[in-house]
Please model this.
Amino acid sequence: MATAAGVADPGAVPSVRAEPRPASRGRRALRWVLVLAAIVVIWEGLKFLGGTPWRAPLAVAGSGSPVLWNPPFRWPFVNDLNLPHVWNILLTFGQPFQRGADQTVGQYLLGAALYTWREAVLGFILGSVIGLVLATIFVHARILERALVPYVVASQTIPIIALAPMITYAFGGNIASVVVIATYLTFFPVTIAMIRGLRSLDPRALELTRSYAASRWQVYRKLRLPASLPYLFTALKIAATASIVGAIVGESPGGIAEGLGRVILTFNQYYITGPEKLWAAIIASGLLGVAFYLIVRGIEVAVLRGRPGAADG
Amino acid sequence: MTQAPPTEPVVRLANVGKTFSRGDQVVTTALEAIDLDIARGEFISLIGPSGCGKSTLLRIVGDLIEPSSGDVTVNGKPARRARMDRDYGMVFQAPVLFDWRTVEDNVKLPLEILGKDAATRDRRAKEMLELVELGDFLKHHPYQLSGGMQQRVAIARALAFEPSILLMDEPFGALDEMTRERMNGEVLRIWEQTGTTILFVTHSIPEAVFLSSRVVVMSARPGRITKVVDVDLPRPRNEDTRESRRYFELVTEVREALRRGGGLDDAAELEAAASEERTIAEGAVG
Model:
């Protein structure tokens, strides 16, 4: 069949979706830098128009250095207390954490971030496993799904600050209570997404497996689970950032001193004298969330390699 | 796979009926009093207007749906036993390939489920893909193939575990006319090479006549067999067959049988089509 040979020509295969273009990664990084630069320009631009009189950085020149620029307006929301200069925030990372401390703010924040991350990862793993197990049960037993999903949803409408003291009391003021809170925030997106993901198979795919007389376990392992992976990773990316929030919030009532939660509380108390430090802690929390997100994203790209659309999102 | 004695039909449908009910109220009678024997190695087409229950009948044969009445015997045993023995290969209108698996691994899926060893899986997948002339595409992913190629992968997958019956539900309905005619040639070649019994649902009269040894014409609401047309066209069939006088006579015969059994207004047809959709959805739940 001459026509069939024509179709079977490998050259006829559309190659559009095959590989992500190499330029796209550099372009994405550039876009990220441009957005950052825009934020800094707007930030400092507002301060230029309506901020506190500009002086050389406190860390470099000390107090009482001459005024370099006197903004024409005085807008309270961009004064040095609410919106410190970007360079002052950056310089704070290099300053001693406390008077006479040998650790800089940067070092201290790094240590605190890693400590919090450890708690978050434990909660993330535990929450993801619980979410996966719940979704698996629900997909195979509609009665349980109908009965229990409303409670799963309701669990997330309760503010975590209402539950945190109870959990702390129940598990003791240690890392376990923090992990439980991080778990509590992560199991939800995984449960909801996986109920959907495990059902994402074409109904005819299930007819197909029925014609193979496949067992439920075979259908689950060979089809339902792989079909659900894109849904799983979407949920895991949400769970990654939620687990960090959970860990930070959970540290406070437990009185855990080593994590970002305590750092944020401490810097909150000294906000009037050093707002830059709280901003530095906010940046550290944000970077931690982004880092965790990117790790999950990296695993996603590796696992979903070869699927259409794996490189986007 | 147990082989029935040659005199016994591969598929025997005796007074098969199917009704769909809501509560204890019968909403639709999809099939009524279906009697049909299919001999080993036959190529049978089911043709009828949309919603005449031909897909439902195919699924009843394959034990994807239970009949409301009547008996289905396949290879001398109940349809359920035949399904557990993996006597059926299924091909749908959509290829239903899995994007995360390569073409080769898609064909291996049923072999994995049947617990075949790796060497057998490799060999069978390669053989089957060569049979459908896709031997050069083992490592491709389904989305890199054209619609016709994807459907050939689906056929290779259905044949991989050597089922005695191939159930095809409008397998070429989504393809353009040119590709469809080429696929008709392919499926005949595969049928002749493997000796598999094929039950083929279609709504294309030329396709049914070109492929089949017998064309089963059905009417809608309730779905009944109105006529069985013996197709005595010589084999092997090829492009010349499509231009022969006998071919046109048979096409006309099937068309007239369809028209006599039809008499559908559009509203009834839509409703019937919707009930067929439900059938597929319900069948998938189990």
